[in-house]
Amino acid sequence: MQNHDVIVVGAGTAGIPAALEAAKRGLRVALVEAADDIGGTLHLSTASISAAGTSIQQRNAIADSPDGHFADYQRINHGTGFAPLVRRWVDEAPETIEWLLSIGWRSDPDTAVFAPEHDLYAVPRTYRSSGLGLGVIAAYRDALDQAAANGARIEIMTGTRCTGFLTHDGRVTGIRAQRAGTEIELGGDAVIVTAGGFSGSDAKWRDFYGFSPLRYGLPTVVGDGIDAVRAIGGTTWFDDYVLPNFGAVRDIGGPPSAWIHSTILPAIRQPWEIYVNLEGERFMREDETHIFARERAVQRQTDWGFWVVYDEGVRWASPPLLKFPPETVEEKFSGPDSDYVRADSIAELAAAMGVPADPLARSIRFYNQGQAVGSDMFEREHLPAPIEKPPFYAVRHYGYAISSYPGIRVDESLAALRADGSRIEGLHAAGEAIGIGFLGLGFLSGSIVSSAITFGRRLGRTVLA
Ligand SMILES: Cc1cc2nc3c(=O)[nH]c(=O)nc-3n(C[C@H](O)[C@H](O)[C@H](O)COP(=O)(O)OP(=O)(O)OC[C@H]3O[C@@H](n4cnc5c(N)ncnc54)[C@H](O)[C@@H]3O)c2cc1C
After folding, report:
1. Contact 199, 218 (CB under 8 A)
2. Does ligand 1 have an atom closer than 6 angstroms to the CB of 51?
3. What's the gap in Å between 196 CA and the centre of ligand 1?
4. Distance 228 CA to ligand 1 centre (A)
5. Are residues 214 and 313 in the same domain?
6. Parallel, antiparallel, or unpaired: how do β-strands 171-179 and 29-32 relate?
7. Ligand 1 centroid to 33 CA: how many Å?
8. pTM metric for this prediction
9. Residue 384 belongs to what domain range?
10. Quick one: which atom of ligand 1 is closest to the CA of 221?
11. Which CATH number does the domain housing residue 289 bear?
Protein backbone atom coordinates (compact mmCIF):
# COMPACT_ATOMS: atom_id res chain seq x y z
CA MET A 1 0.00 0.00 0.00
CA GLN A 2 1.24 3.45 -0.98
CA ASN A 3 1.53 5.87 1.94
CA HIS A 4 1.23 9.64 2.05
CA ASP A 5 1.01 12.15 4.86
CA VAL A 6 -2.14 13.72 3.48
CA ILE A 7 -4.70 12.44 1.01
CA VAL A 8 -6.87 15.08 -0.64
CA VAL A 9 -9.99 13.60 -2.29
CA GLY A 10 -11.06 15.82 -5.19
CA ALA A 11 -8.76 18.12 -7.21
CA GLY A 12 -11.17 21.02 -7.61
CA THR A 13 -11.74 24.46 -6.18
CA ALA A 14 -10.93 23.54 -2.57
CA GLY A 15 -8.74 20.47 -3.10
CA ILE A 16 -5.93 22.03 -5.10
CA PRO A 17 -5.25 24.83 -2.59
CA ALA A 18 -5.38 22.25 0.21
CA ALA A 19 -2.75 20.15 -1.56
CA LEU A 20 -0.55 23.16 -2.32
CA GLU A 21 -0.57 24.38 1.29
CA ALA A 22 0.09 20.94 2.75
CA ALA A 23 2.97 20.36 0.30
CA LYS A 24 4.44 23.77 1.19
CA ARG A 25 4.90 22.39 4.72
CA GLY A 26 6.94 19.50 3.33
CA LEU A 27 4.13 16.95 3.60
CA ARG A 28 3.72 14.18 0.99
CA VAL A 29 0.34 14.67 -0.63
CA ALA A 30 -1.81 12.42 -2.81
CA LEU A 31 -4.32 14.52 -4.78
CA VAL A 32 -6.92 11.98 -5.87
CA GLU A 33 -9.30 12.98 -8.66
CA ALA A 34 -12.10 10.95 -10.23
CA ALA A 35 -12.13 12.91 -13.50
CA ASP A 36 -9.41 12.83 -16.13
CA ASP A 37 -8.49 16.43 -15.45
CA ILE A 38 -8.15 18.67 -12.43
CA GLY A 39 -10.24 21.78 -11.79
CA GLY A 40 -13.61 20.36 -10.75
CA THR A 41 -16.64 22.63 -10.96
CA LEU A 42 -14.41 25.56 -11.91
CA HIS A 43 -14.77 24.19 -15.45
CA LEU A 44 -18.40 25.40 -15.31
CA SER A 45 -18.36 28.07 -12.65
CA THR A 46 -18.59 31.82 -13.08
CA ALA A 47 -16.22 31.89 -10.09
CA SER A 48 -17.27 35.23 -8.68
CA ILE A 49 -15.44 35.56 -5.38
CA SER A 50 -16.21 37.79 -2.42
CA ALA A 51 -13.92 39.08 0.32
CA ALA A 52 -13.79 42.25 2.43
CA GLY A 53 -10.76 44.43 3.12
CA THR A 54 -8.62 43.38 0.17
CA SER A 55 -5.81 45.24 -1.57
CA ILE A 56 -8.04 45.50 -4.65
CA GLN A 57 -10.67 47.37 -2.65
CA GLN A 58 -8.04 49.57 -1.02
CA ARG A 59 -6.61 50.52 -4.42
CA ASN A 60 -10.13 51.49 -5.49
CA ALA A 61 -10.82 53.45 -2.29
CA ILE A 62 -13.56 51.03 -1.13
CA ALA A 63 -13.63 50.97 2.68
CA ASP A 64 -14.59 47.49 3.88
CA SER A 65 -13.87 44.94 6.58
CA PRO A 66 -14.67 41.34 7.58
CA ASP A 67 -17.01 42.80 10.22
CA GLY A 68 -19.01 44.43 7.43
CA HIS A 69 -19.00 41.15 5.48
CA PHE A 70 -20.26 39.24 8.52
CA ALA A 71 -22.97 41.84 9.19
CA ASP A 72 -24.15 41.42 5.60
CA TYR A 73 -24.29 37.63 6.05
CA GLN A 74 -26.58 38.16 9.03
CA ARG A 75 -28.74 40.73 7.21
CA ILE A 76 -29.05 38.77 3.94
CA ASN A 77 -29.25 35.21 5.28
CA HIS A 78 -30.79 36.07 8.66
CA GLY A 79 -28.43 33.97 10.76
CA THR A 80 -29.60 30.74 9.14
CA GLY A 81 -26.06 29.35 8.65
CA PHE A 82 -23.35 28.16 11.03
CA ALA A 83 -22.01 31.47 12.30
CA PRO A 84 -18.61 30.33 13.64
CA LEU A 85 -17.62 28.97 10.24
CA VAL A 86 -18.97 32.00 8.38
CA ARG A 87 -16.96 34.23 10.72
CA ARG A 88 -13.83 32.21 10.03
CA TRP A 89 -14.40 32.45 6.29
CA VAL A 90 -14.98 36.24 6.19
CA ASP A 91 -11.94 36.81 8.43
CA GLU A 92 -9.65 34.77 6.19
CA ALA A 93 -11.19 35.62 2.80
CA PRO A 94 -9.07 38.78 2.18
CA GLU A 95 -5.94 36.65 2.48
CA THR A 96 -7.46 34.25 -0.05
CA ILE A 97 -7.65 37.10 -2.57
CA GLU A 98 -4.02 38.09 -1.91
CA TRP A 99 -2.97 34.46 -2.41
CA LEU A 100 -4.95 34.18 -5.65
CA LEU A 101 -3.30 37.37 -6.91
CA SER A 102 0.09 35.92 -5.99
CA ILE A 103 -0.49 32.86 -8.20
CA GLY A 104 -1.61 34.89 -11.21
CA TRP A 105 -5.41 35.07 -10.84
CA ARG A 106 -6.92 38.39 -11.88
CA SER A 107 -10.21 40.16 -11.24
CA ASP A 108 -11.89 41.69 -14.27
CA PRO A 109 -12.74 44.53 -13.78
CA ASP A 110 -9.82 45.21 -11.48
CA THR A 111 -12.09 46.27 -8.66
CA ALA A 112 -14.81 44.89 -6.42
CA VAL A 113 -18.36 45.12 -7.80
CA PHE A 114 -21.97 44.69 -6.67
CA ALA A 115 -23.46 41.44 -8.03
CA PRO A 116 -27.11 42.03 -9.03
CA GLU A 117 -27.81 38.30 -9.48
CA HIS A 118 -27.88 38.05 -5.67
CA ASP A 119 -29.15 40.28 -2.88
CA LEU A 120 -26.64 43.09 -2.65
CA TYR A 121 -23.91 43.49 -0.09
CA ALA A 122 -23.72 46.95 1.49
CA VAL A 123 -20.49 47.72 -0.41
CA PRO A 124 -18.90 46.33 -3.60
CA ARG A 125 -17.20 43.15 -2.41
CA THR A 126 -17.43 40.69 -5.31
CA TYR A 127 -14.57 40.03 -7.76
CA ARG A 128 -15.33 38.69 -11.23
CA SER A 129 -12.65 36.15 -12.09
CA SER A 130 -10.98 36.99 -15.38
CA GLY A 131 -11.73 34.01 -17.63
CA LEU A 132 -14.42 32.87 -15.13
CA GLY A 133 -13.65 29.51 -13.46
CA LEU A 134 -11.18 28.63 -16.20
CA GLY A 135 -9.10 31.63 -15.12
CA VAL A 136 -8.83 30.16 -11.63
CA ILE A 137 -7.86 26.77 -13.07
CA ALA A 138 -5.10 28.39 -15.14
CA ALA A 139 -3.70 30.03 -11.99
CA TYR A 140 -3.94 26.68 -10.13
CA ARG A 141 -2.04 24.87 -12.89
CA ASP A 142 0.75 27.46 -12.74
CA ALA A 143 0.89 27.14 -8.95
CA LEU A 144 1.12 23.33 -9.18
CA ASP A 145 3.91 23.60 -11.78
CA GLN A 146 5.75 26.10 -9.62
CA ALA A 147 5.35 23.91 -6.55
CA ALA A 148 6.69 20.88 -8.44
CA ALA A 149 9.67 22.95 -9.61
CA ASN A 150 10.32 23.84 -5.98
CA GLY A 151 10.34 20.17 -4.98
CA ALA A 152 6.81 19.89 -3.58
CA ARG A 153 5.68 16.27 -3.24
CA ILE A 154 2.17 16.27 -4.68
CA GLU A 155 1.19 13.12 -6.53
CA ILE A 156 -1.75 14.01 -8.77
CA MET A 157 -3.82 10.86 -9.39
CA THR A 158 -6.48 11.65 -11.99
CA GLY A 159 -8.91 8.93 -13.10
CA THR A 160 -8.99 7.70 -9.50
CA ARG A 161 -12.28 7.56 -7.61
CA CYS A 162 -12.28 7.31 -3.83
CA THR A 163 -14.87 4.71 -2.82
CA GLY A 164 -14.42 4.64 0.94
CA PHE A 165 -12.13 5.10 3.91
CA LEU A 166 -9.69 2.81 5.71
CA THR A 167 -10.10 3.03 9.47
CA HIS A 168 -8.32 1.76 12.54
CA ASP A 169 -9.80 2.14 16.03
CA GLY A 170 -12.26 4.72 14.74
CA ARG A 171 -9.54 6.80 13.11
CA VAL A 172 -9.33 7.30 9.35
CA THR A 173 -6.01 5.93 8.08
CA GLY A 174 -6.44 6.14 4.32
CA ILE A 175 -8.79 5.57 1.43
CA ARG A 176 -9.98 2.88 -0.93
CA ALA A 177 -10.20 3.88 -4.57
CA GLN A 178 -10.96 2.60 -8.05
CA ARG A 179 -8.30 3.25 -10.66
CA ALA A 180 -8.53 1.87 -14.21
CA GLY A 181 -10.91 -0.86 -13.01
CA THR A 182 -8.64 -1.89 -10.16
CA GLU A 183 -9.25 -1.42 -6.45
CA ILE A 184 -6.32 0.28 -4.69
CA GLU A 185 -5.66 1.40 -1.14
CA LEU A 186 -3.75 4.50 -0.11
CA GLY A 187 -2.55 5.11 3.43
CA GLY A 188 -2.53 8.62 4.88
CA ASP A 189 -2.21 10.24 8.29
CA ALA A 190 -4.95 12.70 7.35
CA VAL A 191 -7.67 12.67 4.73
CA ILE A 192 -9.24 15.87 3.40
CA VAL A 193 -12.52 15.41 1.53
CA THR A 194 -12.94 18.08 -1.14
CA ALA A 195 -15.07 15.97 -3.49
CA GLY A 196 -17.69 18.70 -4.06
CA GLY A 197 -21.45 18.58 -3.68
CA PHE A 198 -24.00 16.48 -5.58
CA SER A 199 -25.04 18.73 -8.46
CA GLY A 200 -24.20 15.94 -10.89
CA SER A 201 -26.45 13.37 -9.21
CA ASP A 202 -30.10 13.00 -10.12
CA ALA A 203 -30.41 10.23 -7.53
CA LYS A 204 -29.06 12.36 -4.67
CA TRP A 205 -31.44 15.18 -5.51
CA ARG A 206 -34.33 12.75 -5.44
CA ASP A 207 -33.09 11.26 -2.16
CA PHE A 208 -32.94 14.63 -0.42
CA TYR A 209 -35.90 16.43 -1.99
CA GLY A 210 -38.02 13.94 -3.94
CA PHE A 211 -37.42 15.68 -7.25
CA SER A 212 -34.59 16.79 -9.49
CA PRO A 213 -34.61 20.28 -11.04
CA LEU A 214 -32.50 21.72 -13.86
CA ARG A 215 -28.96 21.51 -12.54
CA TYR A 216 -25.51 22.55 -13.67
CA GLY A 217 -22.83 20.24 -12.40
CA LEU A 218 -20.08 17.85 -13.47
CA PRO A 219 -20.93 14.16 -13.94
CA THR A 220 -18.17 13.25 -11.47
CA VAL A 221 -19.57 15.48 -8.70
CA VAL A 222 -22.24 13.18 -7.29
CA GLY A 223 -21.95 13.35 -3.50
CA ASP A 224 -19.47 10.50 -3.06
CA GLY A 225 -17.98 12.30 -0.08
CA ILE A 226 -21.33 12.18 1.70
CA ASP A 227 -21.74 8.45 1.04
CA ALA A 228 -18.22 7.56 2.15
CA VAL A 229 -18.43 9.62 5.34
CA ARG A 230 -21.86 8.22 6.22
CA ALA A 231 -20.50 4.69 5.79
CA ILE A 232 -18.12 5.23 8.71
CA GLY A 233 -20.63 6.96 10.98
CA GLY A 234 -20.33 10.54 9.78
CA THR A 235 -23.39 12.64 9.24
CA THR A 236 -24.78 15.48 7.14
CA TRP A 237 -26.26 18.84 8.04
CA PHE A 238 -28.65 21.37 6.50
CA ASP A 239 -30.49 18.43 4.90
CA ASP A 240 -33.74 20.42 4.60
CA TYR A 241 -32.20 23.52 3.01
CA VAL A 242 -32.78 24.13 -0.67
CA LEU A 243 -33.28 27.19 -2.87
CA PRO A 244 -33.31 27.62 -6.64
CA ASN A 245 -31.37 30.24 -8.50
CA PHE A 246 -33.87 32.43 -10.26
CA GLY A 247 -34.73 31.76 -13.81
CA ALA A 248 -32.63 30.14 -16.49
CA VAL A 249 -33.52 29.18 -20.02
CA ARG A 250 -32.39 25.71 -20.92
CA ASP A 251 -30.38 26.04 -24.08
CA ILE A 252 -30.62 22.52 -25.43
CA GLY A 253 -27.25 21.57 -26.86
CA GLY A 254 -25.74 24.79 -25.56
CA PRO A 255 -22.98 25.23 -23.00
CA PRO A 256 -23.73 24.62 -19.33
CA SER A 257 -23.79 28.37 -18.71
CA ALA A 258 -26.90 28.58 -20.90
CA TRP A 259 -28.98 30.47 -18.36
CA ILE A 260 -27.16 33.69 -19.18
CA HIS A 261 -29.17 33.88 -22.41
CA SER A 262 -32.14 35.38 -20.58
CA THR A 263 -32.23 38.84 -18.98
CA ILE A 264 -34.81 38.63 -16.23
CA LEU A 265 -33.13 40.47 -13.37
CA PRO A 266 -34.94 43.78 -12.76
CA ALA A 267 -31.65 45.45 -11.80
CA ILE A 268 -30.42 44.79 -15.35
CA ARG A 269 -33.67 44.97 -17.34
CA GLN A 270 -37.14 45.84 -16.10
CA PRO A 271 -39.72 43.19 -17.09
CA TRP A 272 -42.12 43.84 -19.97
CA GLU A 273 -43.47 40.28 -19.78
CA ILE A 274 -45.50 38.34 -17.25
CA TYR A 275 -44.42 35.10 -15.58
CA VAL A 276 -46.91 32.22 -15.33
CA ASN A 277 -46.40 28.85 -13.68
CA LEU A 278 -46.99 25.45 -15.24
CA GLU A 279 -50.67 25.81 -14.31
CA GLY A 280 -50.93 29.02 -16.33
CA GLU A 281 -51.22 31.29 -13.26
CA ARG A 282 -49.21 34.40 -12.50
CA PHE A 283 -47.43 33.92 -9.18
CA MET A 284 -45.31 37.00 -8.38
CA ARG A 285 -44.66 40.60 -9.25
CA GLU A 286 -42.16 40.34 -12.07
CA ASP A 287 -40.32 43.51 -11.00
CA GLU A 288 -39.64 42.15 -7.49
CA THR A 289 -36.10 43.37 -6.69
CA HIS A 290 -35.51 41.24 -3.59
CA ILE A 291 -33.68 38.24 -5.06
CA PHE A 292 -34.47 35.91 -2.15
CA ALA A 293 -38.19 36.69 -2.61
CA ARG A 294 -37.89 35.90 -6.34
CA GLU A 295 -36.17 32.59 -5.56
CA ARG A 296 -38.73 31.64 -2.93
CA ALA A 297 -41.55 32.47 -5.34
CA VAL A 298 -40.21 30.14 -8.02
CA GLN A 299 -39.38 27.47 -5.42
CA ARG A 300 -43.11 27.23 -4.64
CA GLN A 301 -44.00 26.42 -8.27
CA THR A 302 -44.31 22.91 -9.70
CA ASP A 303 -40.86 21.65 -10.77
CA TRP A 304 -39.49 25.18 -10.12
CA GLY A 305 -40.87 25.91 -13.60
CA PHE A 306 -42.42 28.96 -15.21
CA TRP A 307 -43.02 30.60 -18.57
CA VAL A 308 -42.18 34.16 -19.57
CA VAL A 309 -45.08 35.37 -21.72
CA TYR A 310 -45.25 38.39 -24.05
CA ASP A 311 -46.67 39.59 -27.34
CA GLU A 312 -45.56 41.03 -30.65
CA GLY A 313 -45.76 44.59 -29.33
CA VAL A 314 -43.48 43.85 -26.36
CA ARG A 315 -41.12 41.88 -28.57
CA TRP A 316 -40.25 44.97 -30.59
CA ALA A 317 -40.77 47.77 -28.03
CA SER A 318 -38.76 46.31 -25.12
CA PRO A 319 -35.02 45.87 -24.68
CA PRO A 320 -34.26 42.27 -25.74
CA LEU A 321 -35.32 39.56 -23.29
CA LEU A 322 -33.03 37.00 -24.90
CA LYS A 323 -29.36 37.65 -25.47
CA PHE A 324 -29.22 35.61 -28.68
CA PRO A 325 -28.85 37.55 -31.93
CA PRO A 326 -32.28 38.26 -33.54
CA GLU A 327 -31.84 35.55 -36.20
CA THR A 328 -31.18 32.95 -33.48
CA VAL A 329 -34.28 34.08 -31.58
CA GLU A 330 -36.29 33.65 -34.76
CA GLU A 331 -34.80 30.17 -35.30
CA LYS A 332 -35.73 29.18 -31.75
CA PHE A 333 -39.38 30.12 -32.22
CA SER A 334 -39.57 28.50 -35.67
CA GLY A 335 -37.68 25.32 -34.70
CA PRO A 336 -38.50 22.18 -32.72
CA ASP A 337 -37.34 23.43 -29.29
CA SER A 338 -40.52 23.15 -27.21
CA ASP A 339 -39.18 25.70 -24.68
CA TYR A 340 -39.79 28.50 -27.20
CA VAL A 341 -43.38 28.76 -28.45
CA ARG A 342 -45.30 31.27 -30.57
CA ALA A 343 -49.00 31.26 -31.48
CA ASP A 344 -51.67 33.49 -32.96
CA SER A 345 -54.08 33.13 -30.05
CA ILE A 346 -53.83 32.67 -26.28
CA ALA A 347 -55.62 29.31 -26.57
CA GLU A 348 -53.09 28.06 -29.12
CA LEU A 349 -50.23 29.43 -27.02
CA ALA A 350 -51.53 27.56 -23.97
CA ALA A 351 -51.74 24.34 -25.98
CA ALA A 352 -48.16 24.76 -27.20
CA MET A 353 -46.97 25.51 -23.66
CA GLY A 354 -48.87 22.53 -22.25
CA VAL A 355 -50.69 24.70 -19.69
CA PRO A 356 -54.48 24.99 -19.22
CA ALA A 357 -55.95 27.69 -21.48
CA ASP A 358 -58.42 29.33 -19.07
CA PRO A 359 -55.96 30.28 -16.30
CA LEU A 360 -53.48 31.58 -18.88
CA ALA A 361 -56.14 33.70 -20.58
CA ARG A 362 -57.30 34.98 -17.18
CA SER A 363 -53.72 35.80 -16.09
CA ILE A 364 -53.18 37.86 -19.23
CA ARG A 365 -56.60 39.54 -18.98
CA PHE A 366 -56.12 40.57 -15.32
CA TYR A 367 -52.62 41.83 -16.10
CA ASN A 368 -53.92 43.93 -19.01
CA GLN A 369 -56.79 45.35 -16.93
CA GLY A 370 -54.38 46.37 -14.16
CA GLN A 371 -51.89 47.73 -16.65
CA ALA A 372 -54.59 49.95 -18.18
CA VAL A 373 -55.29 51.64 -14.84
CA GLY A 374 -51.74 51.48 -13.45
CA SER A 375 -52.61 49.12 -10.58
CA ASP A 376 -51.36 45.53 -10.70
CA MET A 377 -52.88 42.78 -8.53
CA PHE A 378 -49.34 41.65 -7.54
CA GLU A 379 -48.35 45.29 -6.92
CA ARG A 380 -45.98 45.32 -9.84
CA GLU A 381 -44.97 48.88 -10.66
CA HIS A 382 -43.31 48.52 -14.04
CA LEU A 383 -46.34 48.24 -16.33
CA PRO A 384 -45.16 49.49 -19.71
CA ALA A 385 -47.59 47.78 -22.12
CA PRO A 386 -50.45 45.28 -22.34
CA ILE A 387 -50.06 41.78 -23.76
CA GLU A 388 -52.63 41.83 -26.54
CA LYS A 389 -51.07 41.87 -29.98
CA PRO A 390 -50.59 38.51 -31.76
CA PRO A 391 -48.51 36.56 -32.24
CA PHE A 392 -47.98 35.69 -28.59
CA TYR A 393 -44.70 34.28 -27.26
CA ALA A 394 -43.69 32.12 -24.31
CA VAL A 395 -40.20 31.06 -23.23
CA ARG A 396 -39.89 28.27 -20.69
CA HIS A 397 -37.74 29.22 -17.70
CA TYR A 398 -36.41 27.06 -14.90
CA GLY A 399 -35.42 27.66 -11.33
CA TYR A 400 -32.09 25.87 -11.36
CA ALA A 401 -29.44 24.54 -9.01
CA ILE A 402 -25.68 25.02 -9.22
CA SER A 403 -24.75 23.72 -5.79
CA SER A 404 -26.00 21.65 -2.87
CA TYR A 405 -27.01 22.91 0.56
CA PRO A 406 -26.59 19.66 2.56
CA GLY A 407 -23.12 18.25 3.08
CA ILE A 408 -20.75 16.58 5.51
CA ARG A 409 -21.22 18.01 8.98
CA VAL A 410 -17.99 19.51 10.35
CA ASP A 411 -16.95 21.52 13.37
CA GLU A 412 -15.24 24.91 13.40
CA SER A 413 -11.90 23.31 12.58
CA LEU A 414 -13.47 21.47 9.59
CA ALA A 415 -13.13 18.05 11.26
CA ALA A 416 -15.88 15.63 10.16
CA LEU A 417 -18.38 14.80 12.90
CA ARG A 418 -20.46 11.79 13.85
CA ALA A 419 -24.16 12.15 14.57
CA ASP A 420 -23.35 12.38 18.32
CA GLY A 421 -21.08 15.37 17.66
CA SER A 422 -17.79 13.55 18.24
CA ARG A 423 -14.96 13.98 15.75
CA ILE A 424 -13.91 11.33 13.27
CA GLU A 425 -10.17 11.54 13.84
CA GLY A 426 -8.08 11.91 10.72
CA LEU A 427 -10.97 13.11 8.54
CA HIS A 428 -11.63 16.68 7.42
CA ALA A 429 -13.72 18.29 4.72
CA ALA A 430 -14.02 21.59 2.86
CA GLY A 431 -15.73 23.12 -0.15
CA GLU A 432 -19.13 22.02 -1.32
CA ALA A 433 -18.49 18.63 0.30
CA ILE A 434 -19.59 20.32 3.57
CA GLY A 435 -22.59 21.78 1.71
CA ILE A 436 -23.35 25.45 1.32
CA GLY A 437 -25.98 25.41 4.07
CA PHE A 438 -23.46 26.69 6.62
CA LEU A 439 -23.54 29.99 4.70
CA GLY A 440 -27.27 30.24 5.40
CA LEU A 441 -30.45 29.83 3.41
CA GLY A 442 -29.96 32.26 0.54
CA PHE A 443 -27.13 33.12 -1.79
CA LEU A 444 -24.34 35.40 -0.65
CA SER A 445 -22.54 36.62 -3.71
CA GLY A 446 -19.21 34.91 -4.33
CA SER A 447 -19.35 32.99 -1.07
CA ILE A 448 -19.06 29.42 -2.29
CA VAL A 449 -15.85 29.63 -4.25
CA SER A 450 -14.34 32.04 -1.74
CA SER A 451 -15.07 29.80 1.25
CA ALA A 452 -14.00 26.67 -0.67
CA ILE A 453 -10.58 28.14 -1.43
CA THR A 454 -10.24 29.66 2.03
CA PHE A 455 -11.08 26.42 3.85
CA GLY A 456 -9.07 24.26 1.46
CA ARG A 457 -6.01 26.38 2.20
CA ARG A 458 -6.79 26.39 5.92
CA LEU A 459 -6.86 22.59 6.04
CA GLY A 460 -3.63 22.37 4.05
CA ARG A 461 -2.01 24.59 6.68
CA THR A 462 -3.53 22.94 9.75
CA VAL A 463 -3.89 19.16 9.27
CA LEU A 464 -1.27 17.19 11.20
CA ALA A 465 -0.03 20.45 12.72
C1 LIG B 1 -22.53 27.08 -13.44
C2 LIG B 1 -22.03 27.38 -12.08
C3 LIG B 1 -21.73 28.70 -11.72
C4 LIG B 1 -21.25 28.97 -10.43
N5 LIG B 1 -20.91 30.26 -10.13
C6 LIG B 1 -20.41 30.53 -8.89
C7 LIG B 1 -19.93 31.84 -8.57
O8 LIG B 1 -19.92 32.74 -9.40
N9 LIG B 1 -19.47 32.06 -7.31
C10 LIG B 1 -19.46 31.08 -6.34
O11 LIG B 1 -19.05 31.36 -5.21
N12 LIG B 1 -19.87 29.82 -6.64
C13 LIG B 1 -20.30 29.53 -7.88
N14 LIG B 1 -20.67 28.25 -8.21
C15 LIG B 1 -20.47 27.18 -7.20
C16 LIG B 1 -18.98 26.84 -7.09
O17 LIG B 1 -18.33 26.98 -8.33
C18 LIG B 1 -18.81 25.41 -6.60
O19 LIG B 1 -19.60 25.19 -5.46
C20 LIG B 1 -17.36 25.16 -6.21
O21 LIG B 1 -16.54 25.36 -7.33
C22 LIG B 1 -17.20 23.75 -5.66
O23 LIG B 1 -15.87 23.58 -5.27
P24 LIG B 1 -15.40 22.22 -4.57
O25 LIG B 1 -13.93 22.29 -4.43
O26 LIG B 1 -16.19 21.99 -3.36
O27 LIG B 1 -15.80 21.10 -5.58
P28 LIG B 1 -15.37 20.90 -7.09
O29 LIG B 1 -14.67 22.08 -7.63
O30 LIG B 1 -16.58 20.44 -7.76
O31 LIG B 1 -14.29 19.75 -6.99
C32 LIG B 1 -14.65 18.47 -6.56
C33 LIG B 1 -13.75 17.50 -7.31
O34 LIG B 1 -13.84 16.23 -6.67
C35 LIG B 1 -13.87 15.24 -7.67
N36 LIG B 1 -14.51 14.06 -7.07
C37 LIG B 1 -15.81 13.86 -6.77
N38 LIG B 1 -15.99 12.66 -6.21
C39 LIG B 1 -14.77 12.09 -6.12
C40 LIG B 1 -14.30 10.85 -5.63
N41 LIG B 1 -15.13 9.95 -5.08
N42 LIG B 1 -12.97 10.57 -5.72
C43 LIG B 1 -12.12 11.45 -6.29
N44 LIG B 1 -12.52 12.66 -6.77
C45 LIG B 1 -13.82 12.97 -6.68
C46 LIG B 1 -14.67 15.86 -8.78
O47 LIG B 1 -14.41 15.22 -10.02
C48 LIG B 1 -14.15 17.30 -8.75
O49 LIG B 1 -13.05 17.49 -9.59
C50 LIG B 1 -21.11 27.94 -9.49
C51 LIG B 1 -21.39 26.63 -9.86
C52 LIG B 1 -21.84 26.35 -11.14
C53 LIG B 1 -22.12 24.93 -11.51
Report:
1. yes
2. no
3. 5
4. 18
5. no
6. unpaired
7. 12
8. 0.95
9. 245-400
10. 37
11. 3.90.700.10
